[in-house]
Amino acid sequence: MNQQLAKKRLGIFSLTCCEGCQFALLKDYISFQKVLEYYDIINFRLAQETNLPGPFDVVLIEGTPESDREIKLLKEIRKESAVVVAIGSCAILGGIQSERNRLPQKYIGSEKVKTIKNVIKVDYEIPGCPIDNTETIGYLLNLYFGKNIELPDYSVCFECRQNENNCLIKTKKLCLGPITRGGCNSVCINGGEACLGCRGATNQANFDKLRETLKSFTDSEEIENILTIYGEYEKDSKDRHDRK
């Protein structure tokens, strides 16, 4: 590393979640060491004992705010951070815990699950359940040098074709590949499992067309179930279109 380049201050936080995205970030420590060339990690509870308050140049946040304490923490982080990045399906879509949002209020027992951007301004998002280690480290390096994060906007189907996978929908198996943002190398389909949409929808996602296709071999309830496994998938897509 050029010694004239000063390290930036990085914070990595988790709210209510399984912390799988943080573990994914650390799974290849040789790759993670590249981050340490450019960042001083000021706060990362999962990986170190000494954690300091901000200010931060960049912060990664995983999970959903489920308590007053977590909401307060989020707001404090936002005030102390130049750039806030939401990482993973929980932070961006609400995660599996947001399934309770579909229940009648009398059964929920608490407020509905919020995403991070429901509480504070988020500058960037890195999708996945969990996030991809290589993708996230690449984005951190881009942020260091002042480059924007550019998420791919092709569908998982594009990667399936590249990997010469058989189309699961053609075999009458539920799959969200046609409307889900690629960038995962179609990892689930490569292993024989369906895409369940953990990376959120592409900007061109056609939910109505997918429903029409899936209804030829399954019922509407099952389709809606798969569309909400990782959170408010369709609502998030609509909100992004409305903000443009």
Short characterization:
The chain has 244 residues and is of the alpha/beta class. The protein has helices at residues 20-26, 29-38, 68-80, 88-93, 105-108, 133-144, 156-162, 187-190, 207-214, 220-227, 233-243; strands at 8-14, 39-44, 56-62, 81-87, 124-126.
Description of the structure:
The chain has 244 residues and is of the alpha/beta class. It folds into 2 domains: 137 residues, NADH:ubiquinone oxidoreductase-like, 20kDa subunit (Rossmann fold), CATH 3.40.50; 88 residues, no CATH class. Helices cover 37% and strands 12% of the residues. The protein is built from 11 helices and 5 strands. Strands 2-1-3-4-5 form a 5-stranded parallel β-sheet. Helix 2 runs parallel beside helix 6. The model has no long low-confidence stretch (mean pLDDT 91).
Question: What is the domain tally?
Answer: 2
| Category by helix and strand content | alpha/beta
Which architecture name of the largest domain does CATH use?
Answer: 3-Layer(aba) Sandwich
Distance between the termini: 38 Å
Largest sheet: 5 strands, parallel
Portion of residues in helices? 25-40%
Number of strands: 5
CATH class category name of the largest domain = Alpha Beta
- Shape field: globular
Task: Classify the fold: give the CATH topology of the largest domain.
Answer: Rossmann fold
CA-atom Rg in angstroms? 19 Å
Percent of residues in beta strands? Answer: 5-15%
Report the average pLDDT across residues. 91
Order of helices and strands: EHHEEHEHHEHHHHHH
The parts where pLDDT drops under 50 for at least 5 residues are none
Q: Walk across the major sheet and give the strand order.
A: 2-1-3-4-5
CATH superfamily of the largest domain: NADH:ubiquinone oxidoreductase-like, 20kDa subunit
